[in-house]
Design a protein that fits this description.
about 575 residues; alpha+beta; Anthranilate synthase; D-amino Acid Aminotransferase, Chain A, domain 1; 11-stranded antiparallel beta sheet; about 30% helix; elongated
Amino acid sequence: MTKNAPFVLFDDAQMQAEARLYVDPVRIITCSDPQQIAQTLAQLDKALDDGFHVAGYLAYELGYLLEDKLATLLPKDRDQPLIWFGVFKAAQKLSLAEVTALMDDWASQPHNISPPKAALNKDTYLNNIQTIQDHIRAGDVYQINYTFQQSFQHSGSPKALYAQLRGRQRAKFGAMIRTEDQHILSLSPELFYEAKDGTARTRPMKGTAPRAPRPTADKDIRHWLCHDEKSKAENLMIVDLLRNDLSRISQIGSVKVTDLFTVETYPTLHQMTSTIESQLAPDTPFSKIIQALFPCGSVTGAPKVKAMEIIKALETEPRGVYTGAIGYASAQDGMRFNVAIRTLTLDPDGTGKMGIGSAIVYDSKAPDEWTECHLKANFVTDPEQAPFALLETLKWTSNQGFVLLDRHLERLQDTADYFGYPIDINAVKQSLKTAVSGNQGLRVRLTLSADGEVDVTTQPLPICAEMTYTVSDQTVNPDSPFTYHKTTNRAFYDEARAAQAADEVLFLNAGGNLCEGSITNIFVEKDGQLLTPPVSEGILPGTLRGELLATGQAVEASLTLNDLNPPNTVYLGNSVRGLVKARPL
């Protein structure tokens, strides 16, 4: 890859699949002049007919020029081309190992990003939502996808930022573009359109719910979204719109909905999707597909034309590539474009911008929509979304084998399900089996990476007849999923323990109740009964704790600092050390 030369990368960070990298373009096809749109699309058709690959983006504002009624609404103060594509001889297809090596190289480069700042204040946002709902009540539209821009400062390598965000977001339709003067980073989960061998497919997203940190609550939220009538109504409006759009380029009677109201889970939210498929009319050119479908109805609202008119009246800045589409096309590989949401644009002077938005319907609550928008933007700077591995620490002896193995594997599976990590339990068992031998007891550390890779290390088993403890002045965060799942994202616990001379440090929650130690669960023997805090206090559900509760040797109860005092007896425990008597240092 030539330094500073344009390139385009397409990358599925969810699956163990190859990526597509386009480098060394034969030429660039770009257009900012509204009078040249038809000619530019014809150039793309010609490049494809000549056997080339095209890869690049369509800006949202192109949509104004694909509908005669909207052409006069095209903003004049645009800072991005309406169309930008590189023309390439072929795509480099990168294996999973090559993608991993590339991302590791990019991630090693320095970079920094400031927290994004919204281009409008909350009061303006709330007033605009009121205006939208006035239009809905008047019957002008059913739904509007209202967005606004956020700006930030960036320094260092854009490639490093992409690698970092890729690790946080694990987007299925990720892309990075270097044009002549900008970098575009897209972490999109949404497919706009794909077609291959005559079959066309689109998959709009509408309907969102935030993740909950605790697994049971998270499952409840996911179940709620599956059955939420408001979300289903929003989704169905866009499904109907896209069915109509797709019918314009499809064989008669071939358009069908194959998956309706499917809920997918991402690091910060659950998202409702539906899939529409059809058989393309024979010899449909690239330009006709774009003219029929662009922009995606999920980023406008319905009906599309009226929705775009209202959007233009309310949104003060051009969207640019945000909510446009990024993708590739070739005669050999078909075409695939994302909806360019969760997409950042970086300029050479260190300024950057990204758009966020949500679908507004008649009963939307404006303050909730404001919150949802900022939830969607969390992935840019949230440190808790940095890459991490899942973690289990087990005890092994030649006589017992792996202690509480089934409980460890069950917890690992639950954590993998929560974070969306691929896992093969049989492969995990085999990795554990091959890592241990001899007669010496072992502490076994197992990690599972975001791509499903298992790593196992061992060290001699610690012997501990008694532990000392101190109490931290920091409280656990009950809203963080990392409180309830064991991962390598443990800086909060490890730093607190390292700062103390005691064997263990205990944590309280904001209500003053005892929660857990940095590596152990807390147990207090009181009036002849062994008590341990419930998960709802803010704790990791340890495997030893689970076994003691299941066998009736312990019961859950809220505990305070006073419960650590005599005549009560304090124990700290995990599956490696067992239940160990403890005293204050």
